[in-house]
Amino acid sequence: MNDGDRRGVSDTLLWGTPYRVHRWLGRGGSGDVFEAEHQHLARSVVVKVLHPDLCREPRGMERMRLEAQVLARLSHPNLVAVRDFGVTAEGRAYLVMERLRGRTFDDELRARGKLPVQEAISYVVQALTGLAAVHAVGIVHRDVKLENLFVCEPDATGHRVVKLLDFGAIKLLSPSLPIAAAFATAQGVLLGSPRYLAPEQLTTGIVDARADLYAMGIALYALLTGRGPFAPAQRLTDILHAHTSEVPAPPSRWAPEIPPYLDHLVLQALEKDPAHRFSSAAAFATALTQAATAMATPHPVPAASRASSLPGALNPLVVCASRPSLLAGVASDRSSSPAASASYESPSRPVDPLPSLAPGHAHQAPVTRWAVTEPLDPRHVLAAAWPGLQPPQRRHGRRLGFWAMGSALLGFAVAMLLHTWH
User: Is residue 106 flagged as an active site residue?
Assistant: First the structure.
């Protein structure tokens, strides 16, 4: 960093503050970031100092002050904690945050190439949990990216906590809030990182919490595959065009160990139309958690007699006939699932192959035409239909009528499949 960038900051002391600077960590969208220490409390912290140019603008100073206020109110284990805010003797606003030990998702990928599927899901679920807390108070982060997602060093149990960083580009969804004016974006100004911008940020400019879910989908794609969802590009116009026009390949194209239902979840987060994405960060996290459970839970083959005695159990073919997306997850033509295969016309948008994501989340699966090329293995169909889900309990008096209806649906489903087959 040149001398012009370090006005108000010495090699040892942040002028007019109790913080002693140890080293420069990097530069964000609104300021330089330093590792520092409170000289009286001997507490290690991170200090973000506002850029000199932004210090000359009243709105720039106010945004950092309100960023500190927002973070101070959002106390959450998956959000970076704020310790202090002030102005240096040179008139530069600074924000003091907790010192984290670990590295960003970006650094993690540079060191490891890509992450194991379960580990990647675990990290993103934590990040989504923090993001849900942000959205719950009417705030959109608008700068979710690998560099702003931090995974801490393992604790005594081996657990690694994920923290969401940098709230300098947030948007308040309610213009009536007292601090909304300071966070208003000037017309024609686009906030965020180009490789993570949701399509609606580039077209309509109408942004809500689902823009953050799109960016989180890009981060998850990168963790799983070691690359972005679109063709590599360097020109800004090509990068932005991909968000609005390019259809991403399923992550399993680059990482064959990824199961089909996880492909669906990632691609759903990357939908061009925000209405087709997950309804909330909590819904996205729930779906990923269910996917991780399905991958980790063994599914023993139920005997026919045992299956018939389960109260409320649905025949797996009936489940698949009513939800074709489940069939996609177990009857794909990928070598990783040799037990069954099928050719199909993909729906216009990916659908959720798992149970309902959240209360009140309605989901309509598009009609899909199927041509089954090999017999379906009920073990895999049942595993996809019930990942970690216990069959519902029903009253004994309704059992006979339920099974009569199930048998009729089964006959219809088999007839339709045989008709399509031939």
Answer: no
405: enclosing H helix or E strand: helix 399-421
Pick the CATH number of 102-295 from 1.10.530.10, 3.30.365.10, 1.10.510.10, 3.40.50.1370: 1.10.510.10
Q: Whose CA is closest to 221, among 172, 260, 270, 287?
A: 270
Q: Could you tell me which residues come within 8 angstroms of residue 197 by beta carbon, excluding any fewer than 6 positions away?
A: 190, 211, 215, 240, 243
The pTM assigned to this predicted structure is 0.67
The catalytic residue among 11, 107, 143, 212 is 143
Across the chain, how many H-helices and E-strands are there? 14, 12
pLDDT of residue 319: 35
Would you list which residues are annotated within the binding site for ATP? 48
Residue 387's pLDDT is what?
Answer: 47
Domain 3-98: CATH architecture, name and number where available: 2-Layer Sandwich (3.30)
Predicted pLDDT at 64: 86
**Residue ranges, the chain, pLDDT below 70:** 1-11, 174-191, 299-422
pLDDT at residue 353, as a whole number: 34
CA 394 to CA 397: how far, in whole Å? Answer: 8
Residue numbers belonging to the annotated binding site: 48
Estimate to the nearest angstrom the gap between the alpha carbon of 283 and the chain centroid: 10
